[in-house]
């Protein structure tokens, strides 16, 4: 598949709803299981907040929209699309999916709202100077994770959520950093530093 051509050629269908267009994208790219994960993340994000429901739902549906690009191709595709690549993303191209998903959300689905695009762009790692919207999408992705079974950190994270989004995010980041992380993304480390101030 020519991934860049697909992205450039994709068009929203006016006879389909926003969600139907997203589902069609996942179907055409044979990543429908990721669409179901996106739905779960979207619903979780909405349940975590008293506001921004429409924007959170869109961010949840689109956060992993780049899943169809294989890990082995993500570095090359990012470079061709002029997406800045950090040293750690060179080492672990899987991490590029958040930036690629933000690019596709804007290019294919006409998302112009920076609050949505920024949250998608850091949904795996979080980042420095995060806001509550970023935190909610980040946490929703960790609660409604895309692995089998129950997340091992979930009970502690849910307890921390009763205190604040920040406490819950710190639970997950601490868990991640203590479990053989392939590479510590600088955005993750910057977010942790800010969370512990």
From TrEMBL:
Keyword Lipid metabolism among UniProt keywords: no
Highest classification ranks of the organism: Bacteria, Bacillati, Bacillota, Bacilli, Lactobacillales
Span of domain HD: 34-146
Natural source organism: Companilactobacillus paralimentarius DSM 13238 = JCM 10415
Keyword Transmembrane helix: no
Protein name: bis(5'-nucleosyl)-tetraphosphatase (symmetrical)
An example Gene Ontology molecular-function term: bis(5'-nucleosyl)-tetraphosphatase (symmetrical) activity
Keywords: Hydrolase, Iron, Metal-binding, Nucleotide-binding
EC number per UniProt: 3.6.1.41
Catalysis: reaction(s): P(1),P(4)-bis(5'-adenosyl) tetraphosphate + H2O = 2 ADP + 2 H(+)
SUPFAM superfamilies to which the protein is assigned, alphabetical: HD-domain/PDEase-like
Enzyme class (EC, first level): hydrolase
Record PANTHER family: BIS(5'-NUCLEOSYL)-TETRAPHOSPHATASE, SYMMETRICAL, SLR1885 PROTEIN
């Amino acid at each position: 598949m020519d991934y860049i051509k697909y992205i450039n050629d994709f068009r929203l269908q006016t006879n389909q709803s926003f969600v139907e267009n997203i589902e069609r994208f996942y179907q055409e790219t044979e990543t429908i299981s990721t669409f179901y994960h996106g739905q779960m993340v979207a619903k979780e994000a909405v349940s975590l907040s008293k506001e921004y429901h429409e924007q959170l739902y869109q961010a949840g549906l689109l956060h992993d929209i780049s899943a169809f690009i294989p890990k082995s191709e993500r570095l090359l595709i990012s470079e061709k699309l002029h997406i800045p690549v950090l040293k750690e993303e060179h080492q672990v191209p899987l991490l590029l999916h958040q930036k690629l998903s933000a690019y596709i959300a804007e290019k294919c689905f006409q998302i112009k709202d920076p609050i949505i695009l920024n949250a998608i762009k850091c949904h795996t790692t979080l980042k420095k100077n995060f806001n509550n919207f970023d935190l909610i999408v980040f946490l929703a992705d960790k609660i409604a994770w895309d692995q089998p079974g129950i997340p091992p950190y979930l009970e502690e994270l849910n307890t921390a959520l009763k205190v604040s989004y920040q406490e819950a995010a710190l639970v997950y980041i601490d868990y991640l950093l203590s479990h053989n992380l392939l590479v510590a993304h600088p955005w993750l480390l910057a977010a942790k530093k800010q969370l512990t101030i």
